[in-house]
Amino acid sequence: MFTTEGKKIIFTEKAPKAIGPYSQAIRTKSMVFTAGQAGLDPATGELVEGGIEAQTRQTLTNLKHVLEASDSALNYVVKTTVFLKDMNDFPRMNAVYAGFFPKDPPARSTVAVAALPKGALVEIEVVALLESLHGD
C-alpha cells in the first residue's frame, strides 16, 4: 500500500536494520531508491570479515535482498553510487562488483570518503526500476 505521498517504505529482515532515522528503501510506483548499504551481516549487525572484497560482496547481497523486497532486482538497477573509504581499494571492489552486474551494468559514480558508518570500507546505494513494470 502506498502512502498519500506516493511512496512505500521497504523493510526486509534479509538486510541489516537501519542504524539511524532512515528506511532501507523507498518504492514509488515505478522506481526503488535504496539507502546506502554496507557490508554488515544482517543477523549480527556487524561488518563481515575479509576486507574490501568480502564487504563489497555482502553490501551487494544486502542490496539484492532489499531490491527483491521492493519488487525489483539487480538487473533492474539503473544507477549506483559507491562510497569507498580508500580509493586504493577500487580495483578489488570493482572486481567483485562486476560479478553482480555481468551484463549491461548500471551507470555508476564512485567517490572516496573520509569515513563510513561502523568503520565500513564500502557503502553502495542504488536506484532501480520495478520488475513488475519491466518483467523480462
Tell me what the structure shows:
The chain has 136 residues and is α+β, with helices and mostly antiparallel strands. The chain has one domain: RutC-like (60s Ribosomal Protein L30, Chain: A). 25% of the residues lie in helices and 25% in strands. The protein has 3 helices and 7 strands. The protein has helices at residues 51-69, 90-100, 131-134; strands at 8-10, 25-27, 31-34, 37-38, 77-84, 107-112, 122-129. Strands 1, 2, 3, 4, 5, 6 and 7 form a 7-stranded mixed β-sheet that branches. A hairpin with a 3-residue loop joins strand 2 (25-27) and strand 3. Helix 1 runs parallel beside helix 2 (90-100). The longest helix has 19 residues, at 51-69. The two termini are 24 Å apart. The model has no long low-confidence stretch (mean pLDDT 94).
Shape: globular
The DSSP helix count reads: 3
Tally of discrete structural domains: 1
Round the Cα radius of gyration to an integer and report it: 14 Å
Mean pLDDT: 94
E-strand count? 7
The major sheet is characterized as: 7 strands, mixed
- CATH architecture field: 2-Layer Sandwich
What order do the helices and strands follow?
A: EEEEHEHEEH
